[in-house]
Design brief:
The chain is an alpha+beta fold and 169 residues long. The protein has one domain: NADH Oxidase (3-Layer(aba) Sandwich), CATH 3.40.109. It has six helices and four strands, in the order ααβααβαβαβ. A four-stranded antiparallel sheet has the order 1-2-4-3, sandwiched between helices. Helix 2 packs across helix 5. It starts with a helix and ends in a 22-residue tail after the last strand. It binds flavin mononucleotide. Flavin mononucleotide (FMN) binds next to strand 3.
Length: 169
């Protein structure tokens, strides 16, 4: 799939067959995450890959909108290291770029995925830090549930020329 097709056809997938995602597929997704741009090229991200059913269930129980996680069979939690990037805005932008790369890569290799926000919700960041045993300098930014899709979603055309401004507002 070429990159423009991937961008234009990607949708959030929340229903999964439960088929196991291979380590090779996970590595492809991680490679995509690591290739993201980051402010000053600091690459402040860490990726936690979770396949353990109990941990997936515990994360789902502590996130109001990630109930699909156990069925997906694989969660990737993208975290930012605040020792490496102290400006939280950049930290979150960098991790978000990595998340989007992973979503597109998943779609590109025929998997389905959905981004579930963690930061800046304080309850979620606290619970995910506890569940994943994160050191104090590591901020869980977002969770990606990824697996084999059990739903098909049509692309949505969101192009909106009223939101485009040339030269000045
Ligand atoms: C920062 C962020 C947080 C999100 N959090 C959740 C979430 O917790 N649960 C969920 O099911 N989807 C979540 N989404 C996915 C959005 O709902 C989805 O991207 C949006 O509805 C557009 O649909 P699409 O991804 O199919 O294009 C999140 C997306 C972003 C960017």
């Amino acid at each position: 799939m070429n990159v423009i097709d991937a961008i234009l056809t990607r949708r959030s997938i929340r229903k999964f067959t439960g088929e196991v995602v291979s380590d090779e597929q996970v590595n492809t997704l991680l490679k995509a995450g690591f290739q993201a741009p980051s402010a000053h090229n600091l690459q402040p991200w860490h990726f936690i890959v979770v396949k353990d059913k109990e941990t997936l269930e515990e994360m789902a129980a502590n996130h109001p909108y990630a109930k699909m996680l156990p069925q997906s069979g694989c969660g990737i939690i993208v975290c930012g290291d605040s020792n490496r990037e102290a400006r939280v805005g950049f930290l979150v932008e960098d991790c978000s770029a990595a998340i989007q790369n992973i979503l597109l890569a998943a779609h590109g290799i025929g998997l389905g995925a959905v981004w579930c926000g963690i930061y800046p919700d304080t309850d979620r960041t606290a619970e995910f830090s506890r569940i994943l045993n994160l050191p104090g300098n590591i901020i869980p930014v977002g969770l990606i549930a990824v697996g084999y899709p059990d739903e098909e979603k049509a692309p949505q055309d969101r192009f909106d020329k009223t939101k485009i401004h040339y030269e000045k507002w």
